[in-house]
Amino acid sequence: MTGGAARAGFAIEVRERYGDVAPDRWPVSVQALPNELLSSWLHRLGTANGIAPRSFAGVLGFGDGMWSPRLDLRLPRNITTLLSQKTSLAPADISSMTMNGWATAALLLPLRDNAHRNRSTWMQYCPLCLAGDEATYFRRQWRLASRVSCFVHACGLRDRCPTCHAGIATFDQADLVPQHFCARCGYDLRAAPKASVKASARRLERAIADICRVESVRGSARTNDAVSRVLRTPIAAEVRSGRTLTNLSTAARIRCFEALAAKPPDWLVNDMDTVDAYRRRTIVAAGGHDALISRFADFLDEHQARPRSSRRPIPPSADLADLLTAYVRVAGHRTGRAAKQRGQIP
Length: 346
Fold this sequence. Notes:
The protein has helices at about 5-10, 20, 40-50, 55-60, 65-75, 75-85, 90-95, 125-130, 200-220, 220-230, 235, 250-260, 265-270, 275-285, 290-305, 320-340. The chain has about 350 residues and is an all-alpha fold. The protein has two domains: about 5-190, no CATH class; about 200-340, no CATH class. α3 (about 40-50) crosses α5 (about 65-75). The N and C termini lie far apart (about 85 Å). Mean pLDDT is about 85; it is low at about 1-5 and about 330-345.
């Protein structure tokens, strides 16, 4: 038994001839956790059944290297079928953990196992999220270069082990240990120091996420434009201007967002249609979808006689584009009426 296995409390590891040991359904079925990444689930599944991630690759027919992160991007049908047969999960539930089909796929961090300290790695994490998990797991949104902070704990994400500075390499873990142990040096990632990020940068980050989400519903052209502008943010922020956002380390991207938050959002709206530009500016100014809904409700409270308490609340699932259109219409009507009263327009 290795030191890592002793640390985690496991006494036995099955490595060879696993198919002979469990020919039909695997002994332990692991349910996916909220917003869990497929590779994270695969690592937990293998460990729960007594086989470390590096060896579990062979069970699925893969060799060494970043086998599980590649499945996050493209999951072959035969692997989906195998996993469904060996576990209690439906094929659709397994496929839903991948990044396949994401409108913002261009913002995914590249699959890079080893990288210079100033370059990006393939995965980020929040130490506080890992510390609070009953079973530690990695979230899908941590794969995006446009995410630099944890929306739950208001701290910066990390993309490396603070001790050996290696990236996340659970796929290469040879011991039966939970995912929060560094595969290179064994450091407990839950104990990583909290990374700071300014509130203004977190507001901008949330606004960017909401813009991409809303525009992905409205059409691919708008989504491509938003993603393209976000990729060029290092140029707009004058931080590492020769690289795109996906090539920067998390620390460098945090500095990029902090610099952008101090500037007008011209980089996000230049050469755009007036209505679309106004929509993006409004989201940025509000700091995201939820804040914008709150502002819209406050606007109605202030300019309508009927108090909020007697109105039906705006549902959390309200479409942001519709809310913005209504806001522009109401605000524009009120502004035009006031101008008429002042005699500024006929």
